[in-house]
Design a protein that fits this description.
8 helices, alpha+beta, NADH Oxidase, 229 residues
Length: 229
């Protein structure tokens, strides 16, 4: 591939961001299905293709959102995801990176440290898919091993990059995993499937302050050892 031909691919990768505010413009089923078909070209060990999705729009999406928002407000019920996304205790450099992105986001939204009510309200926006017209819940068979989870990450990345080719934006949301019981009940998901994450899909709202967040990345020289070059 020539350097010129590679530029749109690189632009899609570097232009992908976690969007936290969407326009209500609908996304046709054909487009969503096409993006999933493209994403399924992701590599997977012995071509197992471990991904499964539940795509929602319109009235089914609104019912789902109402159910999840109610569950989010039920702070008396303990919640725990079926898998551990983060370590039990953060350590450097990961703790500093996590804190920075959190306070950068809250700074854009004018949420002060200790303002638990507004933090709760902002977290609740996850469960409306940040107003996106399409929400997808992704699951994996719990009998599969870590290799299939690695494959799943490549599938999800494909989806987010492919969306950029259609002038669409996304937000991958691990927050849904803690509400797997409500999600399982609402979508009739079998017990053998683990809720991996949610995915918001739509067009970014240019007026949403949270969408001004652009996170930093460490350069390759900071995380790679080069020998023999």
């Amino acid at each position: 591939m020539s350097e010129t031909a590679a530029r749109p691919v690189e632009a899609a990768i570097t232009g992908r961001r976690a969007i936290r505010g969407f326009l209500p413009d609908p996304v046709p089923r054909a487009t969503v299905e096409h993006l999933l078909d493209v994403s399924a070209r992701a590599p997977s060990g012995t071509n197992m293709q471990p991904w499964r999705g539940y795509a929602l729009a319109g009235a089914p999406l609104q019912r789902f959102v109402a159910r999840l928002l109610s569950a989010h407000d039920d702070t008396a019920t303990p919640r725990k995801a079926e898998y551990r996304y983060y370590p039990e205790a953060f350590f450097e450099p990961y703790q500093s990176r996590r804190r920075k992105v959190g306070w950068d986001l809250y700074g854009l939204l004018g949420i002060a440290r200790g303002d638990t009510a507004r933090m709760h309200a902002q977290h609740a926006r996850n469960f409306s898919f940040f107003g996106a017209p399409v929400g997808i819940i992704f699951t994996i068979d719990r009998r599969l091993e870590i290799g299939s989870w690695l494959d799943y990450g490549m599938f999800l990345q494909n989806f987010m990059i492919a969306a950029r080719a259609h002038d669409l934006d996304t937000c991958a949301q691990a927050a849904f995993a803690s509400f797997h019981q409500e999600i399982r009940d609402e979508l009739s998901i079998p017990q053998e499937e683990v809720v991996v994450c949610g995915m918001a899909l739509g067009k970014a709202d240019p007026e949403e302050p949270a969408n001004a967040l652009v996170t930093t990345r460490e350069p390759a020289a900071a995380f790679t050892r080069f020998d023999g070059f």
